[in-house]
Amino acid sequence: MNKLLLIVGGSTLVFACLAWTMGVWPGIELSKLPAGPGVVPLTGLQSEGRDVYVANGCSYCHTQQVRPLDEDKVFGRPSAPGDFKYQTPELLGSERTGPDLTNIGMRQPSSVWQYIHLYNPRAVVPESIMPSFDWLFEAVDQAPPGITPVPLPKRYAPAHGVVVPTHKAEALIAYLASLKQPSWAGSESPSAAAATVGTTSAAAGANPSTNPGAKQPGGYDAAKGAALYTANCSACHQASGEGLPGAFPSLKDDAVVNKDDATKHIDVVLNGLHDARVSGVVYSSVMPPFAATLSDAEIADLIDYERSSWGNHGKPIVAAQVGTERAKAK
Amino acid sequence: MQTEVTARHSQLSDEDSRALISVFSAYTVTATLWLLFATGVGLLIAFKFGAPEFGSGAWLTFGRLRPIHTNATFYGFASIALVGLGYYVAARSSGAKLYSAALAWIGLVLFNVAALAGTIALDLGYIDGDLEYREWPWWVRLIFLAAVLVTAWNLIATVARRSNEDIYLSNWYIIGGTLWAAIISVVGVVPWYQYGLGQVAVSGFFMHNSVGMWFTPLALGVIYYSLPKLLNRPIYSYALGVFAFWTNLLFYPIIGAHHFEFSPLPWWLQTIAIVFSVAMLVPVWGGSSNFLLTMRGRIRDLMHSYPLMFIFVGVMSYLIGSTQGTLEAFRSLQQVWHLTDFTVGHSHLTMYGIIAFAIWGGIYGLLPLATGKKAGQLGMALHFWMALVGCFIYVTSLSIGGTIQGLDWMHGLPFIQSVIDMQSYYVGRGVGGLLMFLSHIVFGWNVWHMCYGPGAVASPLQSLRAEESVA
């Protein structure tokens, strides 16, 4: 009997001690961490949205943890312990089949884009493998008063009537919009934190007319510009530069993009845009500012890419011009 | 020792043996049904990576089916199969009858009720958080905990009836694993101390230990019994087995935080986890060399016995998969592989390569001894080769693809490029998964043969005795 006691009791005791030291005790201590500056609880609707996010297993493909690694800078500043005060159940995730969403409210502030993307991700990102969540929407003959129908591209819209989000979809999008990293004492200055994204030549969606790696006559790095466009712009303005009718304006043949004076073009990329009237159409979707995530040189490459693609012929710019505009805004 | 044990079996009454046989068979049959369900779901979601619109709607959406696949594999298939094998091994190696067949049946019902309720709850969107392997609503996990406690009680009481002073090593692992699983379940289910980042620390502990301190010990226990039994020779070194048992117990529970490297968890917690991940090489190499040395010089026997081939693959996966786990824990390699599909490849190399193969080796080796009915050679061959080749294709695809994914990110390519680059490897995942699933259908057929098939000898017990007197 003694031997059984040793094996049963002894091994259980050892394991219980280790479970306490490596699981329970760190759990207790880390649960007491205070919230970081600017970290606030979710509102009612956002919290409902988080439940929808959890119930449908979004975090099996999307992480919510930014690592202190160069490759993660594109998703925001490194996550800090204080960021997780109000996050139970935790949603750090273990896989990035899709991008990290820690800061998605900042990176993609347009709820119009989020609704289209949620309904069918391929309507805005053709290569996406995210499931369609069209079952969080309803097709109706006419949108009820006060609710804007989702401006789906024709190919994805129902034959009759319009598509409106259900309450669950609204809550989910409200939650995604709330995912904004509060600025952080230790965070780097914008130009130093230049996003590493799009710095290599083998970029997706590179314009076939540009020779990757080769400097164009205008003196900008075409491959870099194409990669930056794919990473930051094409989700809305599309690889074709034509946008989505009614949702995101076209950059092709656009007056601002083709104007020789690039001041407005630079200003929009740096500071974003909302409720803009472009070619006579008012767009309700919000464009995020890129001043905090892209360096002057990157913005110059990006703008030059836009000014020389899809038949555009705007005068190219240089990084110094972006610097001047950036200084003005301060 | 083997002959002593065999002699003792014969003294047990027919009735006791019959009770043990029906418990073992019933656990194996329900585990097989869960295997078919869980891997059918796995196959469906593997296809979704290539065809995201395949199977649409709330009930078939990826995010709900993914935890259904993992939980049904873990708590439906692997847990039930290993407990069934554990009862048989505990009773036979102790030369005692099962303490209580009734408790074993109650446990089986509880395991199945938990797996069924958990599956339904997840599909309806009732989930306790996307917390790996503890997604089931808390009350479902309490049912599972009850099943584990009933099992632990029954196993301990069975071994307490042993006629020999010594407790065979298998029972150390099987009883130990069951009790540790109970502790892990409690740590996972109690909600009042884990919030925010604290819950992350608990998740690291839980997701790691629920695999390596529950499935691995039971699988090792089954191998420690079946391998000597099938080879008709004692284990190479009993002392080495005991050494591996205690070192595994000391090192493994410490390394859970390596699932959250570069996260905001305290850096020291991550570093300790990495250091002890290296220490894990001691029990892993100790255990696997013990098995391999037991097989030494018996390659011919190995090649002619599918049960032994299954166990051999299980042992090799234990060696390779666990060593890979140690390497993965290094920060330099985590930087490439963390959050990529490489991790999914690793989890299949281990859960499938080690656990499932050990289970199949145990069932093919031991169930015929119990029921007196064997599976056909062709059936076992089909199962073995399809499972092995399928798993190889699956793991290789995701390992290469995952590495490319990680390098894409490190090179700063637009994120969507990593999605595009994975496409051909997702095809590999689908093909490998299909072969694995087909092999499980054959396994189902084989289990049916071993339990209820025709060609049975009039009295299974006679045949059992005949088999065992040979062994």
Name the CATH superfamily assignment of chain B.
Cytochrome c oxidase-like, subunit I domain
Q: Pairing-aware structural class of the strands and helices of chain A?
A: mainly alpha
> Got a strand count of chain B?
0
CATH topology type of chain B: Cytochrome C Oxidase, Chain A
Overall geometric form of chain A:
globular
Give the helix proportion of chain A (percent range): 25-40%
Question: Explain this structure to me?
Answer:
The complex is a heterodimer of chains A (330) and B (471). Chain A is mainly alpha-helical and 330 residues long. Chain A has two domains: 43-181, Cytochrome c-like domain (Cytochrome Bc1 Complex, Chain D, domain 2, Orthogonal Bundle); 222-329, Cytochrome Bc1 Complex, Chain D, domain 2, CATH 1.10.760. In chain A, helix 4 (111-119) crosses helix 5 (167-178) and helix 9 crosses helix 11 (319-329). The N and C termini of chain A lie far apart (79 Å). In chain A, the strands form two sheets. Chain A has a two-stranded antiparallel sheet with strand order 1-2. Chain A has eleven helices and four strands; from the N terminus they run H-H-H-H-E-E-H-H-H-H-H-E-E-H-H. Chain A has helices at residues 2-31, 44-55, 104-107, 111-119, 167-178, 222-232, 234-237, 255-258, 263-271, 296-308, 319-329, and strands at 137-140, 162-165, 276-278, 281-283. In chain A, a hairpin with a 2-residue loop joins strand 3 (276-278) and strand 4. Chain B starts with a helix and ends with a helix. Chain B is 79% helix and 0% strand. Chain B has a single domain, classed as Up-down Bundle (Cytochrome C Oxidase, Chain A), CATH 1.20.210.10. With 471 residues, chain B is mainly α. In chain B, helix 2 (14-48) packs parallel to helix 4. Chain B has 17 helices and no strands. The chains are: A mainly alpha (330), B mainly alpha (471).
